[in-house]
Specification:
The protein is built from 12 helices and 4 strands. By secondary structure, it is of the alpha+beta class. It has a 4-stranded antiparallel sheet with strand order 1-2-3-4, covered by helices on one side. The longest helix has 38 residues, at 279-316.
């Protein structure tokens, strides 16, 4: 049977499909935890701009009582409250009854606290806990909590996610006789078949979204090749002039961020991005179960079978 016909009817027998299946399997296992972290953190920060506004309490006020402490007096109050810390910055409020924000450090530890400018009393953190959590999730999603090196690794991870999508698209094809079955989930099937259906159907219907996130992730981390490509066809970074519209090239360069984060078109798209952003978690879990069934369990059983004759031989000896 020609290769083309085998690919159409029985793709599982084609060598290329077998090879890409192995690439898909082991790439998924290798970057699975990365995909898990990126998917959860990405969905969590879709609404971050709205949440930042909601969680920001605005300027905090205190009663005016007596004489206002001097700059040195505020510094001494902060050091008394947190022994061992050194004051980095003091931010005065615009209003006389507004608290003072003081940044302190001790080695690698940082503190940002609010103080009463009249009594020197610590009145709480300058950044609410909710905003700290959002900032941590954003740093995890963008930089993997590791600064510029983490951001570069993130770009490579996005490249592997793109590879997973492409190999998954090839592996998904079941043949002309059963491709429709791979579009849906058989809820009455045994658990192994159900797991396969879940992985296959979710992968098919969300392919374009996950592929888009992979590609735009690469472009956001390594933007220069994309900028050079766009600049070859249309000007970018034009000098600002009054009443001059933004260059087409600059508009094009913004689209990877628009598509990746989905926060340009309002809450319906943001909600869709939150839900679809968690699909890779489902694919990771279902793929991990298949890897367990296809690779680990057979290997474990082979090891058991091989150990029995060896144990018998040792007993005879």
């Amino acid at each position: 049977m020609p290769v083309g016909e085998r690919w159409a009817r029985r793709p599982q027998t084609v060598w290329l499909r077998k090879a890409l299946f192995q690439v898909h399997l082991w790439t998924g296992i290798g970057v699975g935890l990365y995909v898990l972290a990126i998917s959860i953190s990405g969905s969590a920060i879709v609404y971050r701009n709205t949440l930042y506004k909601k969680l920001s309490p605005g300027p905090k006020m205190v009663p005016i009582s007596g004489e206002r402490l001097s700059h040195d007096g505020m510094k001494q109050a902060a050091v008394r409250a947190y022994p061992g810390y050194s004051v980095s910055y003091i931010w005065e409020g615009k209003q006389p009854n507004q608290v003072v924000e003081i940044w302190m450090h001790r080695g690698d530890k940082q503190k940002q606290r609010l103080f009463d400018p009249y009594t020197g009393k610590d009145v709480g953190p300058s950044v609410p806990t909710g905003i700290k959590i959002l900032a941590w999730l954003a740093d995890l999603h963008v930089n993997l909590l590791a600064g510029k090196p983490g951001r570069a690794v993130n770009g490579l991870g996005a490249g592997f996610l793109t590879l997973l999508c492409l190999t998954g698209a090839v592996v998904w094809w079941p043949g002309v006789e059963s491709w429709r079955r791979s579009l849906s989930i058989n809820w009455r099937a045994n658990w192994k078949r159900f797991n396969w259906d879940l992985h296959s159907a979710f992968g098919f219907w969300t392919f374009l979204f996950i592929f888009m996130w992979g590609i735009t992730g690469v472009l956001l981390v390594f933007p220069q090749p994309f900028q050079d490509f766009v600049a070859h066809f249309t000007p970018i970074n034009q000098p600002f002039r009054r009443r001059q519209p933004v260059a087409i090239g600059d508009k094009i360069l913004r689209w990877p961020a628009y598509l990746h984060f989905g926060n340009r078109w309002g809450w319906p798209i943001e909600t869709l991005w939150v839900i679809l952003g968690l699909v890779p978690v489902v694919l990771f879990v279902t793929g991990g179960i298949m890897w367990w069934n296809r690779v680990l369990v057979p290997a474990w059983k082979r090891a058991e079978r091989e150990s029995v004759p060896e144990a018998v031989a040792q007993g005879i000896d």
